[in-house]
Every structure is written in structure tokens, then in C-alpha cells.
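Help wanted!
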Amino acid sequence: MTHSAQIEPTGAPVIQMRDVSKWFGQFQVLHEVDLDVGKGERVVVCGPSGSGKSTLIRCINRLEVHQSGQIVVNGLELSDNVKNIEKIRRNIGMVFQNFNLFPHLTVLENLTLGPMLTRHMKKAAAEELAMHFLHKVRIPEQAQKYPLQLSGGQQQRVAIARSLCMEPEIMLFDEPTSALDPEMIKEVLDTMIELAESGMTMIVVTHEMGFARTVADKVVFMADGRKVEAAPPEEFFGNPREHRTRAFLDQILKH
Amino acid sequence: MTLAPIEVVRREAVVPVPAYDPDARTPVGVWLKANLFRSVGQSLLTLAVAAVLLRILWFVLDWGVFNAVFYTTDPDVCRAATGACWAVVVEKHRPMLFGLYPYDEHWRLVLMMAIYLATVVLSLWPRCWNLRFLVPLWTGAVLSIGILMFGGVFGLPYVPTSEWGGLPLTMLLFTGTVLIGMPVAVLLALGRRAPLPVARGVSVVFIESLRGVPLITILFVAVNVFPLFLPAGVEVNKLLRITVGIAIFFACYQAEVIRGGLQAIPRGQYEAATSLSLTYWQTTRRIILPQALRISLPAITNHIIAAMKNTSFVIIIGLFDILTATTAVMQDPLWRRFYIEAYLFVAAVYLFFGYALSRYARQVEKWIASGRI
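Answered by r_m:
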């Protein structure tokens, strides 16, 4: 049972998912999931592990292929059409749980690679853009270092800056703080909050309920590959409708 | 039951522990005692091994230096001596190093080797790694080496490849093998993991069928069978055929080594590249291969050194590389009995190049570790 119909996106829909289903072999990871994300909307997806929340956002830039249903991004449908996939990916930045920085390149080279290869920017312009975003994530002084010389929190901020260098309209975050030591979570969340305040459309898979409460326009709860509940944060935390949501919130908010 | 009184008086004098000094060196005596003479058994073993080693060292010096003949043109002087006859190397070094190449033209080979070594040494130096330098360098080197080896222009007499030989031939075969083999190896390794089933199939069949066959079989096919498939009148140079044969054999082994490196790259690297909209080739060239080749570098070096020694297989097409040339030279009845010295010299030449390669590879690993490349 879903409640997405009751939520009005804050802007024109940029992502529309209809009845999206996906299988890994015999195992169905997504069961007819619907999700609408409006322009500038911040959506937090939460749920127990194995609930399909990562798979859901990985379908949006086709790191995973859905087998049935419809995903439309900026009016383009994700299908086998390679041109559409390319266009959609160019508009979507993604931040991973394990950063996935390129270890053999410096921080600056990590940031300029995409703009130079896919947007055909000149090296000087790409470096200027890279430094702009390194300033935004507050680590311009690390530009010449290699990723493994940085702390986890710094690496994740580099990864965010790397995505921003592609100047995407939508940012996907796949558990961006789950691999971090506790003292580094805040610096990454602060960066994400600033990004949210700048009006970026964001879909964030996370267990950080504080972030969800303060930043999200909509919180989506998933379990067993189904969207169980979707509501604005005050309603989601204050008055969850579904039994499973309540059980989940009890579990993670207890301590 | 009475308890023994607890002693609280220290019996031994307190020896102050010297402050830790990271630069301190262990005194020789202490090191010897700790490593070689720790117990009676170990001391006996040390002495026994030392006796054997000294005996061998004595023999080597006695035979190779003290009683050796270093220079003479008369084989009878060597025969009279009890030690090594290094004079054979002095006497025969030209046919050994240069094979059948016309004697009066040997200066061309000396010049060729100088150009070759300078080009290779420059190319191996990271500071020279840009195409604006390397392309003219190699164009110049290939042209001048070609002119020197073949001749036929500028008043140089023409020398066909069938008369090439010795160390220059070994160098050319080895370089050709690596320059042709490495790109083929990379393509085969990528092909084996490619998303296209056709590319995968071709690579697997190619690698598995050639790897399962001895090198000598491949060379016989290149030399004797391949020409049968060519239309009449078309001929591909024998030396080129054999170089390609060795190169492809080398590539099949090297491909599997590189595949090992490719498999070590985490999936997240591909996903990050995909999310930056990089294409397959951009991802491969900029993200995956640089990391995979770094990972597999020690094993890659291993195969390159093996390839250097595989060049001696050209014996089967009657070409005289440094090893075969030496065998041929040692047919001379006057000097024949001193073949051990001649082969030791050839071994020293191989060892020099092989060791230089492995030292260089170790340096590259250091550069990688320090982030210089």
C-alpha cells in the first residue's frame, strides 16, 4: 500500500517511477515501486538493509536495469536507448557509500576528468571549476593529494565535489555516511545540507534520521522491496501510518 | 600453613636501559652471535657452510683468475694453462656478438646498438614520457637502425636479414616481441572480460589455443605453414614472421597476467566512471588499465624477462642470435675445447640485460608507490 498520490511534488516532476520492478535472478528486489520527485525536492529513502533502497536509486542512473515498469527522468524514459541513458546520466550525479574515488589520480584530477572527457572542457577551465567546488566542500588545500592520503570524511566530500563538477540537476546519495567514522559524519552531512539549501534535487539513501527530519521534503520508507510509506518528515516521524514504519522507527530511534 | 615471606629486596643491580636510538647500528660481533653462532649446532652448521663456500670461491678464483689466460692469439698457450681461457672471448667476440653479419660492416652494428640502447634508456625514464618527445625519438631510432642494418643507401652495402645475427638480432627480436606483444596482450585481456560475447569468445579461443602449444610449434607454423596460405609471389620476411610468432605467444601469457590485474579493480571504480558518463574506452584507458597494469607489474616484468630469453628460438630458422652464433663459432677445432668460457660470456650478457630489466621494474614499483607515476 502506497501513499505517494497524496503528496504533491514541490516543483515539476523530474523523476517519475511507475510500477518499477526488478529481479536479481529469481529474487525480486523491487516490487512495483512508484516514486515522484519534483524539481528541487529532497527525498530521503530509508529502511532496513536488504529492503531495495540502494537498488531503487541505482535504477535511476541505470547502474541497475529494471525489468518492468517505467522510469522517466526529465521527460526521457530509461530504456535500452543508449542515447537517452547518456543524456540522463549527464544530468545525475552520484555519491557512493565507499566514495569510489580514483586512487591513481590526484584529487584535482579526479574532479577534472569528467568535465574534460565528457563535457570537453579545456584543462584550465576544468581546474577552475574543480577548485570552485573544492572551495564549496571546504578542502581546496587538498587538491594535489591522492585520495588515500585523506580522511574518510574528506574523501566523501571530494566525491561530492567530483559529482558537482558535472553540474548535474539531480544528485543521488547511496548511504554517503555509512562507511565513515562517527566524528566524520557531520562534515559530510553539513556539505549535503548546504547543497540542499542551494536548491539541488536530491535523493538520499541514509540512516541519518536527523538529516531526514531537518532537510527532507519527503521521507520514503522501504521494506522487502516495497515502498511502504512516503510522507513529509513531521508526519513520517510524528504519526507514521504503517505498522512496519513504526517498528523500524522504534528500532533506530530508541538509542 | 605458613606462607613464605615475600621478598621485596632487588637482588640484581638495576641496569639503565639506553634510550631508543633509531639510527643505532648493531655491532658486528653482536650480529654474528645472534645470527650465526647462537648455539653449538648452529655454529657447526655455520662453519660447515663457510668451508664449502670458501672452497667454491677458491676454485672460481683459481680457475677463473689466477691461472686463467686473458689474452693470447695462440690456442696452445690456453691448452697449457690450468685455468680458464678468456682469450677465446677476446679472439672470437666479433662473430659471437655479430653472427654472420659481414665482418667489415660490424661498425654499423656497434653504432646501431648505441642508438638502440640510448633510445631505450631515454624511453624508460619518466621525465621523457610525453609523445612530443617519444614519437620523434622512436621515428629517428627506427629509421637510423633500419638504414644501418639493411644498408643499400648512402653507399652502405645491402645486408639481407638472413645475414643479421648476434646481439643486435637478439635486441631487435626482444624489442619487437614486447612492442607488438604488449598491446595485443592488453586487447586480449580486455576482450576476455568484454561485454560483447563475440570479443570474449575470440579472446578465449585465441589465448587458450596458443597457450596450450609449445613456442617451438608456433614458430614452425610461422616459418613453414604460414607461407602456404599466402598467394603466390607474396612473401613476408622470415624475421618478421618469427618476431610476430614470438610476440603472439608472449601476448597470450601476458594477457592472463593483465586479466588478473583487471579482476582486482573493484566494481565501484566502473560505477563511478559510469556515473560520470565516461565511455567504455575512456573508462578503460583512464581508470581501469592504469590501475590494473600497476597491480600486475611484477608478473608482467617476469614475462618480459622470459621473452628476452625466448628470442634464442630463432635458431630454428637458421638465424644466429648471440647464443646460436656462439655455438657456431665454437665449431672452430682450434678453440673448441674452450666452449665453457664462451658460454659463460653469453650467460653474462643475458644476465646483464635480465638484471637491468628487473632493477628497472623494481624502480618503477618504487615510483608507483611514491605516487610519481
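OP: Thanks! One thing I noticed: The radius of gyration of chain B is 29 Å.
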